[in-house]
Structures are given as C-alpha cells and as structure tokens.
Amino acid sequence: METLYISLIVLLFLLAIADLVVGVSNDAVNFLNSAIGSKAVPMRTILIVAGLGVLVGAVFSSGLMEVARKGIFNPEMFFFDEIIIIFLAVLITDILLLDFFNSIGIPTSTTVSVVFELLGAAVVISLLKLYENGEGFGGLEQFINVEKASEISFGILISVFIAFGVGAVVQFISRLIFSFDYHKKLKYIGGLYGGVSLSAITYFILLKGTNSITFLDQNVVEQVLENKLWIIGFSFLFWTVISQMLIQVFRFHILKVIVVLGTFALALAFAGNDLVNFIGVSIAAWQSFILWQEAFLASGVLPSQFLMDGLSGEVQTPAYLLVIAGAIMVVTLWFSSKAQYVVQTGVNLGRQGEGQERFKPNALSRTVVRYSVFVGQTFSQVLSDPVQDKINNRFSYPEKAFSYKKGVAKPAFDLLRASVNLVLASILISLATSYTLPLSTTYVTFMVAMGTSFGDRAWGRESAVYRVAGVFNVIGSWIATAAIAFTAAGVLSLIIWFGSYYAIVVLLILALFSIVRSAIRHSKQVKYQRNHKKFNKTDIITINEITKESSENIVKIISGVNDLLLDVVNNLGYHDLSRLKKSLKTQEELELMIDELKDNIFYYIKSLEDTNVEASKFYVLTLDYLQDMVQSLAYITRSSHTHVSNNHKNLKFSQIRDLKSVQRDLDEVYNELVKAFQSSEFDSIEQLITNEKKVLDKISDLLQKQIDRIRDTENSPKNSKLYFGILLETKNLTKTSISLLELFKEYYEEARQEF
User: Fold this and answer.
1) pLDDT value at position 430?
2) What is the pLDDT at residue 194?
3) Which keywords annotate this record (predicted)?
C-alpha cells in the first residue's frame, strides 16, 4: 500500500512539472507584455531579466502554499485517500484547461483555475461522503471554506474593473502631461516621474518579499509594514535624485530603466504568487503522504482512516523544490512558443497603430462602441473648442514616435505606456497584498494594459469594435475558466472515486493524448503562420519590390488553388463527404489569406514612394485577380460538398473524366506558372497565356457536350447544375489566370529595368 501511494505522489510531481510548463506559458503575459510590446530592450535581455525575477520569486514563495492545503476546503474533514483523489483531479484538470487556453492564445488566471478546481473536486468528494454517511447535503459547509472561496471570487471580480478604470485614467493624464513627443519633457520632469515609478516598484518588491520570505524575522516584517510611508517617502527622494542623474549625467533613457525593473518586479510577483498554483497541490499531497506515513509506521492506520488535520498547521516547503520549480519556469519562458502566442494577444489588443485584427466584432462590441462614441460626442460638446484642440494635440503622435529601422516591426506602443502598465500593476498588486485582498495577477496586469490602451486612444474608430470584442472574448474565457474548472475537477474526482486506479490510468492516458495532440496542432499552426508570413509593409517601396511581393503571393495562392481543385475533383468522383469537408477547411484558409492581404492594401500604398503610383495600382489589381480565382474555387468546393452532403446522385463517369481532363491541363499550366514566378523569369508568359486559352476552348467543348447529353440521355437536374457550375467557374478561374498573366506581362518590362 505504501508503494502504491509513493507511486501516486511521484505521479503528482510529474503532473506538477507539466502544470508548470503550461502555467508559465499562460502567465508569461503578466510580465512580458509591456517590455515586448514597447521593444524597450532586446528580447534576450527581456528574458534574462524576467528569468531572474522568476527565480527570485520562486525562492520567496514558500509561505504561499497554504491555499492548496487549507484555503478552499477544511482538510481535517477528509481522509488521506480522499485528499489524494482531490489533488489528482485538480492537477489533471489544470493541465488540460491551461493547455487549451494556451493553444488558443487566451491568457487566463491560474489562480482562478486552481481555486475552482479545488472547490469543484472538494465539493463532489464532500457530497459523496455525506451521501455514504446518510447525511443531508446541508452539511456541506463543514467541509468547504465557503467564506474564503467567496472572498477570493469577489475580490478577483472587483479587481478587473478597478484595474481597467485606473489604467484608463492614469494613462490619459500621463499622455496629457507628456504627449507622444515626451523626450523633451523627460529632461526636466523625468526625474520626478522616475522617482514615483521606481519607488512604487521598489515598495512592490519589498512588500512581496516580506510577505513571502519565511526565514525573515517577524520583527523585520512588522517594521516594514509599520513604516511603509517612511519607506515610500525615502525611496521616492532617492530614486528621484538617481533618475535625474541617469538622465542628465549618464544620458540613460529613464523609461527603459522603469520598464526593465518593472518587468523584474512583476516576474518576481508572478513566481511568488502563482507558483502555488502549479506545484502547491503536489507539495500538499507529498506533505499529506509524510503525515500518513508517520502515523502508519506508528500505529498501522489505513489511508481511509487517517484524517488530514495535520495540513491545517504551518508546513514549510523545502527550498530545493522551489529552486527546481523556478528553473523549470525559466526554461519554459525561453523556449515555449505557446507563451509567445499568449503574449501576442495582449500586445495585439493594446497596440497603438492599425493592423491585422485578431478578433472578429460581435453584437456586444458593436453596441458598446456605438454608445461610447455617442457618450464621447456628448461630452466633447461640454468642452470648448480650444480645450478640445489642446487635448487632441497631446494625443496626436508623429510617425517617428513609432519608427523603427527598416525591416524590423515597429513597437506596438511607446515606452511611456509600457512604464505606466508596469507601475500601475505593481501599485495595485501591492495595495491588494498590504490589505490581504485576493486578486489575480493575470487579470490585473491584462486589464491595466487594456485600460491604458483605451485611455491612450489606441482604440480608434477603425479598430475599437475589434479590440472591444477581443477584451470581451478574454473576459468571457475567464468566466468560462471558473465554470469549466469547477465542473471538470468535480467530474474527474467522481470518476476516480468510483474507478479507482483503473480510472487514474485511463485519465492520464487521455490527458497525455490531449496534450500531445494540442502540441502537434499548435506546431502546425506556428508553421502555417511562418509559411504565410506577409512581406513587411515597411519594406515595399519600388515597383521591383512590389513585383517580388506579388510573385510570392501568386505562388502561394495558385499552388493552393491548383492543389485544392485536384482534391475536390477526386473527392467528388469518390463521393467522399469527409474529404470534401477537409477541402472546405482548406478553402477557408485560402480565403483568409486573401483577406489578410487585402486588409493591408492601405499600408502598402502608404509606404510607397510618391513616384510609384503605378505600383499601387499593380498591387491592387494583382490581389483582385487572386481573390477572383479563390472565389471561383470557393463555388466549386462548396457546391460539390453540398451535392454530396445532400446525397444526390454521383456524377457520371464520363463527367468526372472530363473534369479530370480539364484539371490536368490546368495543373500543367499552373505548375509552369509557379516555376516562372518562383524564379522571376517571365519570358514564358506568352506561352502560358496560349496554353490557358486552349483550356478555355476545351471547357467550351465540354459545355456543348453536356448540353447534348441533356437533350439525349441526361436525367438528373442536380447533376447538370453541379457539372455546369464547375465548368463555368473553372472557365472563370482560367480567364482570371489569363488576366493576371497579361497584367504581369504589361508591368514586366518596368520591373526588369530595376533588376
């Protein structure tokens, strides 16, 4: 029996390692968002600073492990074997839940997930105990710490609204003071701003340390808490002088200093606060095992007879476990692609400029934006025109505010907003900690970033409906986190209760399968995005470069069209519905690719030199032809899928044979066309046009052939409709290809002159 539980404890620690990996991937947005979005320092430096913060915070987190042992449920009411079931259900659920949100790039709260997982599993086990004992469910309160769970939930909810509101107001005031051209102001009041910011960060680090470091003398902790105003005041004076010296004497960019130190501070807080969410459960299980083992050796008490009242006391976590956990977190921070994906969600929603929007608008976001515009217009009527002009001037930013060297993406927002994000998050978390108020560091840092982007007027009329939809999606996922965590952990604990060790094995296999499948899908998604990465719009200046960019797009689209046409014709011949569904998905990817390219037309044209107006027209026409090709193929794909889905008669063998014949001819032309554009050798354009015209002639003959069939032997109107539709759209597809080639032929001479 002892060996069995040792195996379960080892298993729980292995699960904790997996939880660390997925947890860090999710929570990296907390402290990387501002530094990455503003490009304050190189990425390597950001990761080094964040890694140091994570390591320090991990060592300081020992005193925070109580929430997993006694914060949500009353351990003295559960036996050892029941506690192990709760902890197993929590860890399996947490890994699957966080990995799911990481895969879709949504930051969620590890605090909320672990709290509601513990709550869900404990509630189910408690109800089972009450049922077996013949007691009513009204006795549930003796098992669950309802007051603590309610306090945590309410505190987290309130912190979301406070973080957004404070972020919006402070950023608005900061921008009024500094504007986007803040460099001159920093020479004079940068020391004061640095003093406020760095003293806030210093107090934040000091407060987190005294609350977390268990080996500090209690008198030291009390002295810090009793003299916090003196500490803040002295720190403010010290950092104001240092900041002014850095600006005037050493020519340091004080905002970069604030961002770097703020990143360290939030990374420290993340590890100190959230490490419990990843390994606290496993450590609590290990401590439970030690307590039972001592009792078992002393009196032979069975796991189902040993109450876990020992967990109610203070139990210290070994430092080496914290160091190991911190090291795993740092490694994950450096190498996790999912962490970078989650960070990009916050950066994308908060960026200052326009660009590709990740989220689609919904009815709620449209309504909110519509009423916000109305309120804004009403409020503006109260202010005089001179006041409005003055405010607007503070929020108008020159392009140089976000300029970057050629070939490198510009920052999503400036250093002023990045510093406000970090300082405000530090202050809010410090205040909550000093008053022992529960909050989620993820929710606070994310909502502060959203509030500052709103207050900075980053959500303009062109982007507001998308950004608001994104925020609502993230908040909706937070609500879903609590519900899913509670339900899933409860269900898993129920399965383990009745299924015992067999259920554990099955659940672990399913969890492993789910994680591996998620990793494969994410890897494919990253590869797809890398392969379809668009040419940087800031690099497109000349007709030569436009031709090169267009050639790359043509190769991608035509290769996709050619492959998909082959799949559709083959799948239609086999009457294979499942493969036609896959064809529909491929078609949607092609349409999305075209939409992304067309979304950036404005930026391509803006980046061109004044002398290259013709290049703009060339680029727009190229994309228009590519879109026409994809639309023709969309009709072929969808009508084929609908035909098979509705169980209509198969196309006749002769019809499939004719369609394959046309497809083979187009395949030869498109392969030659792709080679031409890949090599930028366009001497064969004339021959390609001739070959495509032959395909048009063949399609015309097949149309006449089908008309003759209808008059003689054809008796299926649905088949005729589908066949005619495919031929006519293939004809349009071919005509568009010819128009595209003729366009390139027209512009080829000009492009060749630049080579």
Assistant:
1) 77
2) 93
3) Membrane, Phosphate transport, Transmembrane, Transmembrane helix, Transport
Please list the residues that pair with 144 across neighbouring strands: 73
Place of tokens 């020519």: 251
pLDDT at 463 > cutoff 50: yes
Residue labelled with tokens 């929430």:
67
From the list 199, 191, 202, the residue with the least C-alpha distance to 255 is 191
Q: Which of 569, 558, 564, 562 is nearest to 722 (CA)?
A: 569
Q: How many residues does the chain have?
A: 755
Q: How confident is the model at residue 597 (pLDDT cuts 50, 70, 90)?
A: confident
SS (H, E, C) 232-264: HHHHHHHHHHHHHHHHHCCCCCHHHHHHHHHHH
Question: Would you call 534 helix, strand, or coil by DSSP?
Answer: coil
- Rounded CA separation 449/579 (Å): 44
Query: How far, in Å, are 250, 251, 553 from residue 750 at the CA level?
Result: 52, 48, 19
pLDDT in tens, 402-441: 555 554 567 888 999 999 999 998 888 877 766 666 677 8
Structure tokens at 237: 């004076």
Specify whether the backbone of 527 is left (phi greater than 0), alpha (psi in -120 to 50) or beta. alpha
Go through 613-644 and write b for each residue having 16 or more CB atoms within 10 A of its CB, e for each that does not.
Answer: eebbebbebbbbbbbbbbbbbbbbbbbbbebb
Distance CA 564, CA 569 (A): 9
- The pair of structure tokens assigned to 434 is 């000093």
Q: What is the pLDDT of residues 258-292, one digit of tens each?
A: 999 999 988 887 777 677 667 878 888 888 888 88
Please report the pLDDT score of residue 547 as a whole number: 56
Q: State the virtual CA torsion across 540, 546, 552, 558 in degrees, nearest 10.
A: 140
Task: Write out 550-616 in H/E/C secondary structure.
Answer: HHHHHHHHHHHHHHHHHHHHHHHHHCCHHHHHHHHHHHHHHHHHHHHHHHCHHHHHHHCCCCCHHHH
Which string of DSSP letters, residue by residue, matches 670-702? HHHHHHHHHHT--TTHHHHHHHHHHHHHHHHHH
pLDDT bracket for residue 65 (50, 70, 90): very low
Contacts of 434 (CB under 8 A, 6+ apart): 207, 225, 228
Give the helix/strand (H/E) hosting 335. Answer: helix 319-335
Which stretch of DSSP H or E encloses residue 330? helix 319-335
**Are residues 443 and 115 in contact, defined by beta-carbon separation less than 8 angstroms?**
no
Mean local confidence (pLDDT), 155-161: 85
For residue 745, the surrounding DSSP H or E stretch is helix 717-754
- pLDDT average, residue stretch 158-167: 91
- The mean pLDDT value for 314-340 works out to 77
Estimate to the nearest angstrom the gap between the alpha carbon of 375 and the chain centroid. Answer: 31
Residue keyed to tokens 């998308």: 466
Reading the block at residue 267, the tokens are 């990374």
Please name the residues in contact with 251: beta carbons below 8 A apart, sequence gap of 6 or more: none
More confident residue, 435 or 454: 454
Lowest mean pLDDT among 193-207, 276-290, 638-652: 276-290
Strand, coil or helix: what is 79? strand
Residue 6: how many other CB atoms lie within 10 Å: 12
Is the whole model's pTM more than 0.85, yes or no? no
Q: Which residues contact 548 (CB under 8 A, 6 or more apart)?
A: 535, 680
Report the distance separating Cα 40 and Cα 414, nearest Å.
Answer: 9
What mean pLDDT comes out for the span 536-557? 60
Residue 660: what pLDDT? 93
Please, are residues 199 and 192 in contact by the beta-carbon 8 Å criterion? Answer: no
Cα 618 versus chain centre, distance: 35
276 vs 584: CA distance, rounded Å: 45
> 121 with 85: CB under 8 angstroms?
yes
